[in-house]
Amino acid sequence: MKYKEIFMKRAIQLAKNGLGFTSPNPMVGCVIERKGIVLSEGWHNKEGIYHAEFLSINNIKDEQLFLDCTLYVTLEPCVHFGKTPPCVDLIIKKNIPIVVVGIQDSSDKVKGLGIKKLKKYGVEVIESILIDECRILNKRFFTFYEKKRPYIILKWAQSDDGFIYSENKKNNWISGVYARQLNHKWRSEEDGILVGKKTVLNDNPKLNVRKWFGKNPIRIFIDQKLSISNYYFILDGSQHTIVFTEVNKKSQYNIEYIQISFKKEIINQILYFLYKKKILSIIVEGGKKTLESFIKENIWDECRVFMCETVLKSGLKAPEINGIVSKKMNLDKDKLIIKKFQFKN
Ligand SMILES: NC(=O)c1ccc[n+]([C@@H]2O[C@H](COP(=O)([O-])OP(=O)(O)OC[C@H]3O[C@@H](n4cnc5c(N)ncnc54)[C@H](OP(=O)(O)O)[C@@H]3O)[C@@H](O)[C@H]2O)c1
Fold first, then answer.
1. Taking the C-alpha atoms of 44, 49, 51 and 55 in order, what is their torsion angle to the nearest 10 degrees?
2. Among residues 105, 101, 123, 138, which one has the least CA distance to residue 8?
3. Could you tell me the pLDDT band of residue 172, with boundaries at 50, 70 and 90?
């Protein structure tokens, strides 16, 4: 590995500490290096709290050390006043001579302006170090700003004979305990979790994070005529919930009712609302009809499928999906396959 990549790799590692906590901000890691030694490190952990650059710079009390150091940061430093002041100004103020940037920020308020300002004030900027890794690190953030919609993960578990549900085995899980635990970890990493009405009626899911540490995602579901009663966990008010419906109903504590038209395809209406609400990512956990609405419209980014040993013999067939296989792994008796979206005519 080349010299600069070693420090950028460390900055990426640090940034990942923020997974599930930083939204709607990106995950950012920062390393300050001098003569091959790491002087300071930091990462962004929560919206409104210090940025990675600020934290790393603030750790260094001897101002002389800045004069011949290099700052590595996974994402272009911010240039605007948000809940915290611009990192670019701090870098300039401390006379840091070299800044290595993993990838440019494509969000509206930065978009190259951070790098431009650093250069204007005489800072040497080295760009695109481990650019692909830095892009993947913030796949949610980039998708949100570039496609103007949340990053979408489709997820289901299917039996060995290709079913996702069967009347015969109503109360039994298809996947094993490790797959279910991993799924809770995934839930903690996304802003929202979306399901269809029949999944709510048949499974009464809580859609929270119980088998992992982390925040609960916002629950999102589609109920055209508001036929789900308060008996179901999804309407218990225990976590923020958004219901997309054709009915005009006033939102109440923790439950938002959003009126949309069911005369046209609803997915784009839902995504537009979630975009406006700054929801950077959603995990769609079924059922078949809901998953297929995203697949049919070619609106998804990643698909995570557990292929399980269970045999169901009949029931709801799993959705069919194309895409490029990016990862395969075994989890006890289950196999996980992750696919990335690839556009096909
Ligand atoms: N194995 C797994 O991983 C897994 C995961 C989740 C669920 N499931 C199973 O899947 C079964 C349910 O699947 P399902 O296909 O029958 O139902 P579903 O996708 O859960 O829900 C379908 C309903 O959601 C609403 N909806 C979803 N997408 C819509 C769209 N694009 N446009 C309009 N309305 C939309 C409609 O409600 P309205 O009827 O109000 O119009 C529709 O009838 C459950 O029994 C559950 O056990 C399995």
1. -90
2. 101
3. low
CA-nearest of 176, 180, 173, 158 to 318 is 158
pLDDT tens sequence across 198-234: 999 999 999 999 999 999 999 999 999 999 999 999 9
* Integer Cα distance of 107 and 89 in angstroms: 19
pLDDT tens figures, 97-124: 999 999 999 998 899 999 999 999 999 9
CB atoms within 10 A of CB 232: 15
Mutate to test the pocket of ligand 1, among 161, 165, 166, 186 (most ligand atoms within 8 A of CB): 165
Q: Is 334 in the pocket of ligand 1 (CB under 6 A)?
A: no
Q: Answer yes or no: is the C-beta of 196 below 6 A from any ligand 1 atom.
A: yes
Residue entry with tokens 């692909």? 132
Fold classification of 3-144 (topology level): Cytidine Deaminase; domain 2 (3.40.140)
- Return the domain boundaries, the chain: 3-144, 148-340
At 75-95, the pLDDT tens digits run 999 998 877 789 999 999 999
